[in-house]
Design a protein that fits this description.
Mean pLDDT: 95
CATH topology: Rossmann fold
Number of strands: 13
Largest sheet: 7 strands, mixed
Number of helices: 7
CATH architecture: 3-Layer(aba) Sandwich
Number of domains: 1
Low-confidence stretches: none
Strand content: 25-35%
CATH class: Alpha Beta
Order of helices and strands: EEHHEHEHEEEEEEHHEHEE
Helix content: 10-25%
Radius of gyration: 16 Å
Length: 216
């Protein structure tokens, strides 16, 4: 992939040459993360996705002891590794986060690398343009204080794959919800309703397209 170097947050970033949209907004939306993590009683481990080119996990690494980040696109993941080189408290995984492990199809948006998304493979569907899928529970995190997901409609699926982590740690949860979950056959607000019904979570903040929930 062709690369270029961009500047932001007082440093340089390796960035896809094709991207024109994500770069316009990614640095401006970072303050939304604070609306979530300032509610954490502790800041031990945060599980974050999508990792993109590493901007969000890099920012979270300043305030959490450990950052577990996931990014399914191999090209973006390679740049994430370059951009996060030397940051010892970030653990990066080249996977999509879904309810079940396996493989899923990835849909690339070359002009907007923040709008890429995945969908589970249908039965007997050819494994073309596929990436690995994993569950949040498979990370085995014992001290999760925040789950922060911006994964273009797959948020509810990823949360269903985090059931044991949520039961064990009751983290603050922040998800993007701009009605992209219709790709998975669910509707806007379904993720927050599921968290309320299953675990007693309540919505406490709605910065921009994000929803921040805490367990009462």
């Amino acid at each position: 992939m062709n690369e270029r170097v961009v500047e932001g947050l007082g440093r340089k970033w390796v960035w896809p040459m094709s991207d024109r949209e994500c770069i316009k907004v990614i640095f401006d939306w970072l303050p939304d993360m604070k609306r979530a993590y300032e509610l954490c009683r502790q800041r031990r481990t945060v599980i974050q996705a999508g990792g993109n080119m590493g901007v969000w996990p890099w920012e979270l690494s300043k305030v959490f002891g450990r950052v577990v980040t996931a990014e399914p696109d191999p090209d973006c993941f390679a740049m994430l590794l370059q951009n996060l080189s030397g940051v010892d408290n970030i653990e990066a995984h080249n996977v999509a986060l879904l309810e079940h492990p396996g493989f899923c199809r990835i849909y690339l948006e070359l002009a907007n690398r923040g709008a890429q998304y995945v969908q589970p493979l249908k039965l007997h569907e050819a494994m073309i343009d596929t990436v690995e899928a994993a569950t949040i529970d498979s990370f085995g995190v014992q001290d999760c204080d925040l789950i922060y997901l911006d994964i273009e409609g797959a948020e509810l699926s990823a949360l269903k794959g985090a059931r044991e982590t949520i039961l064990r740690t009751k983290p603050v949860i922040a998800i993007e919800d701009k009605n992209l979950s219709t790709r998975f056959g669910t509707s806007k607000y379904d993720a927050e309703k599921w968290l309320e019904n299953e675990f007693g979570y309540k919505v406490v903040r709605r910065p921009h397209n994000d929803v921040v929930l805490v367990c009462e």
